[in-house]
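Supplementary Methods, section 5.1.

A reviewer requested that the exact input to the structure prediction be made available. We therefore reproduce it here, unchanged from the version used in the analyses.
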Amino acid sequence: MYFPLLTDNEQKAVVRALRGPEFVRKNHGSLFDRGSADSYYGRPQTPHYGGVGGDSGPRVEVTDSKSVAEYRAGYNHNEQHGDKKDYR
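The structure derived from this sequence is encoded token-by-token as follows.
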């Protein structure tokens, strides 16, 4: 039986599908998105995804290293770019 090789984009799509929507950075409520939002609003780091209503589902706290790393990537990205809520 022959299985054709997947293109890079196809491989990435398979990985995203297996990992779940919380790892798709463009998704509202994803780990990266929630980390970025926590940084923006000056909140402490509490790794989670979802919990913003609509289709993002309930808030899910995470502790596994891959999920925490993805959340922190979003948090650190926002910290490096200095985008913060102005409460004046």
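The mean pLDDT is 84. These observations are discussed further in the main text.
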